[in-house]
Write a structure and sequence with these properties.
By secondary structure, the protein is α/β, with parallel strands linked by helices. The protein has eight helices and twelve strands. The radius of gyration is 18 Å and the shape is globular.
Length: 314
């Protein structure tokens, strides 16, 4: 299905929880979020029903997000139900990786085809600082478990923060010399917890190219401009919502853990899907797609959404 701007929508990011076992400083309040009742959050059956309706509307790829999706009770049931949908080509997940040592193999068996693992620093002390409670060793063990389970094309998401991890850019890129991973540097966005941070924190992703001039362009992937050092095993992706808008080729919609369809990450527009079934649910998804805005307004002063990132689905 195409939206009002002629973009073909093929990608659903489905949040299964707004809870997380971390408290990343740019994402969540230090105290976390108020725990909702089960009635307030999409059930496993609703997640699968929404996924099926989205596929009927033309979606080919679903990514499960949170919060942290692996803290969601019944996550393997959700994965198995979604992966069984006819016409779905790819079921992915973005995770902080800390619970992968136990869950990587079951996720693979449940039909998850690819993982993105968030890791913003390779320094244990900095990692504990940015996550407020996480341990880098757990994430590294999670990446190893994912490889043992048979996951290929692993992607590591790195939110680029000036004065925090910009000194580690070369170290992250060096991971691609012998590993077939993609290191994705994502520009920090002025929304939620970090909207009032110093401007120096918001680095353009081009800083990666400045620090590693050996990188050469290769084929793009979704919203990421991609590069590699010739002869190295992996790639580097740059996701640039601030410095280079990619809205004109955005092919995604989002559904929050409480069942709201968001046509755009940064829009305040939301459309409730709860209580809808069959043709009525599909019609609502099509209405949401039709409402997708032409572009966001980050460069005009920040995101329009009132939600924190964990409440939308990173």
């Amino acid at each position: 299905m195409t939206d009002g701007c002629g973009r073909t929508i093929r990608y659903l990011r489905l949040s299964v929880t707004d809870l997380c076992n971390y408290r990343c400083r740019y994402c969540m309040p230090e105290t976390g979020v108020e725990k909702r009742t089960h009635r307030d959050i999409l059930s496993a059956e609703e997640c699968v029903e929404i996924g099926r309706a989205a596929v009927n509307c033309g979606v080919k790829k679903i990514r499960l997000t949170g919060g942290e999706p692996l803290v969601r009770r019944g996550i393997l049931e959700i994965c198995g139900g979604l992966s069984a949908i006819g016409g779905l080509e790819e079921l992915c997940m973005t995770t902080n990786g800390s619970l992968l040592p136990d869950l990587a193999a079951p996720l693979k068996e449940a039909g998850v085809s690819r993982l993105n693992v968030s890791v913003d620093t390779l320094c244990p002390e900095r990692f504990s600082h940015i996550t407020r409670r996480g341990r880098l060793v757990d994430v590294l063990a999670g990446l190893e478990a994912a490889e043992r389970a048979g996951f290929t094309n692993l992607k590591c998401n790195v939110v680029l923060i000036g004065g925090f991890n910009d000194s580690e850019i070369r170290d992250f890129v060096a991971l691609t010399e012998h590993r077939p991973w993609e290191i994705r540097f994502i520009e920090l966005m002025p929304m939620g917890q970090c909207v009032g941070w110093e401007r120096s924190c918001f680095l353009p992703a081009e800083e990666v190219l400045r620090q590693v001039p050996a990188l050469r362009p290769c084929e793009p992937s979704g919203t990421a401009a991609r590069y590699r050092v010739p002869g190295w095993a992996g790639t580097v992706g740059l996701i640039e919502p601030l410095s280079h808008r990619f809205c004109n080729r955005c092919d995604r919609i989002r559904v929050t853990a409480d069942g709201k369809l968001k046509p755009c990450l940064h829009s305040e527009a939301e459309l409730s899907l709860r209580g809808l079934h069959g043709a009525e649910l599909e019609a609502a998804i099509r209405r949401g797609i039709a409402q997708k805005p032409e572009q966001h307004h980050l460069s005009d002063g920040g995101s329009d959404t009132p939600r924190n990132m964990n409440e939308i689905g990173g």
